[in-house]
Design brief:
By secondary structure, chain A is an alpha/beta fold. The first copy, chain A, has 9 helices and 14 strands. Chain A is globular and about 65 Å long.
Chain lengths: 354, 354
């Protein structure tokens, strides 16, 4: 039976990418060698790395604007400390919109003073704070664009008087923004970009080199830029599959096209959540994420029946995070509209059977 | 034509591993899902991570001896700073046997005083220093077991009065040692263990928790131990392929069996280097690596002919590192004896044609 994979990440990637990625394990570029056994300094892999970097900047509209794209290891969790290591001299400002912002703040506190400009913790992060002000005397402002666990998403970014740093792990390449308003964007690959094991960092070079502390080489953005993301052996296969996924997105028509599809998927699910009396949305409507829809049952006794129904329909990964409970439908770029339609049918079916 | 892959790393892995690793991209464990799209918290992947950790300890004979196995990101280059971050309070002792030791020393210097107990830099690292003494007042002693670039290898490890830390990136799982003499072993996967993108760390828990500095979460061994190597999303696919490779090694008979094969391969190549007047070994005989044989041509004018001959034989990755020049035959665990025999034939053929 066909699977409908709503996993929150690592998550579904395009089927055409899986096919090509599987073939490259046996024979990469007709070399007679697996992509897993070639040198990262080989011409074939250097070209993969360059294309991945170039496609990232191109899709975000950031070519020739002073930005560099890096594919590093360690996930967004490593970026929590690298951003502070590289940018935080005295004080930084953070917006707290959930679990990942909270973790980013915790790591940054080891490097300087942190001013939390606003937080939605008072309502278990079911909304995005607005109307806060960003201090001009901080080194940078950090925010999380999309909160996978709570299903909220920043729709309008503040006009920041200081460098704007954004963790876009769970919604990069999913919607069009003026990406040039950001000075540093980071994203673990394992949502819209590729498999786990690599992290994209897009950084404006002009914001670097301003802190006085000594930075270990592997944590220093300038070192990685100087070596074009090959200071040490990169996560070869994860970069390769990310490149294939970025190619797929470009062929599809880029962010403008995928945003239309993502909006259709999100509308379909939220419309049913709002219509069906058996479901209740978790996030405030204005802040609902187009990537992760969070909702609960209004009648808890229906849980077993609903779980049976969606599992029987081939749906995977619908359980909510323990911080919220209920359900979470993650609808990353590669999830087809058809899968969301199946989920909506199952929700209607619950109403019929209940 | 069949390829003979002597690449220095990332390098050849067993053909049976490539086959299984390719299939898992399309359908993992008959789940109908790719291994690239499943949650790292899923039962199927948690079981992969546990098996990889268990096999690592089992193959090294370190089960139930107070060690933990971690699969982290960032390569050995990240371990250069993590070892110092976690273990270096005032002073550490380092043995300098080449490029990687030198880099490890550079990063550790950011965290305390480094005493270089001995170095073979005077002869461009073509030997392993001996007879040095290790200070008892240092926090740990660090060495590199095998030097890929120079083709040297430590045959006997010192009886260290302080915790013994070893970078075994390029010879772990290749020869039998009393691994319990080490307190911390680290190794980038991309030689004998798997593809690039994950790093094995074997650490004796009792040496941790002794430094006074605050350690960022992602750099803290105790945090990773507490979360069983799943503090954040691991490099899922690289851990999976490493697990397959460790299974292959266990099925083959473990380190004792592979060591016999590795010794045969090394003997074959060094015998020819010593016999054939057209070649000269780079490393001192007593310190020759069984993983990487480095050698040069005695008559530089034969370079083009030799290159033509080995390329025509399907040999790949034989060029030496620029620090040494000449040639380097890397013979990691998965390289068949047959490939070394082909190379030896080509060396003999050069003598005939020259």
């Amino acid at each position: 039976m066909k699977k409908h994979n709503f996993s929150a990440g690592p998550c579904i990637l395009p089927q055409s990418v899986f096919k090509e990625a599987s073939e490259a394990i046996l024979d990469f570029n007709n070399s007679g060698l697996s992509i897993l056994e070639i040198s990262h300094r080989s011409k074939d892999f250097v070209s993969v790395m360059e294309e991945a970097q170039q496609l990232s900047l191109e899709l975000l509209g950031l070519e020739n604007k002073g930005y560099k794209a890096l594919f590093l290891q360690g996930g967004a969790s490593t970026q929590f400390l690298m951003t502070a290591y590289n940018l935080l001299e005295k004080k930084a400002a953070y917006l707290n919109t959930g679990t990942w912002s909270t973790k980013a703040i915790k790591e940054a506190k080891l490097f300087g003073e942190i001013e939390e400009v606003a937080s939605s913790k008072d309502k278990n992060f079911n909304y995005i704070p607005k109307g806060y002000s960003i201090p001009t005397n901080a080194d940078y402002f950090h925010c999380t664009s999309n909160n996978t666990i709570f299903g909220t998403q920043i729709k309008e970014f503040p006009n920041s008087p200081i460098p704007l740093v954004c963790d876009m792990s769970s919604d990069i390449f999913s919607r069009n923004l003026d990406f040039s308003q950001f000075d540093l964007i980071y994203a673990g690959a394992q949502k819209n970009m590729g498999p786990a094991g690599t992290t994209l960092v897009i950084v404006k070079e002009s914001i670097l080199g301003k802190v006085t502390r000594q930075i270990p080489s592997m944590l220093d953005y300038q070192i990685h830029i100087g070596k074009e993301s090959m200071f040490n052996t990169p996560s070869v296969y994860a970069v390769y599959v990310s490149m294939l996924t970025l190619r797929w997105l470009k062929d599809l028509g880029g962010i403008n096209e995928i945003e239309k599809i993502n909006n259709k998927k999100a509308s379909a699910i939220y419309q049913e959540v709002d219509r069906n009396p058996l479901f209740k949305g978790y996030a405030e409507k204005a802040d609902r994420s187009i990537m992760n829809a969070t909702f609960t049952l209004t009648e808890p006794k229906l849980e077993e029946l609903f779980n049976d129904l969606w599992k029987a329909a081939g749906i995977n990964g619908l359980n909510g995070h323990r911080s919220v409970g209920g359900y979470r439908a993650s609808m990353y770029n590669a999830l087809p509209l058809e899968s969301v339609e199946i989920l909506v049918q199952v929700m209607k079916e619950l109403e019929t059977q209940a």
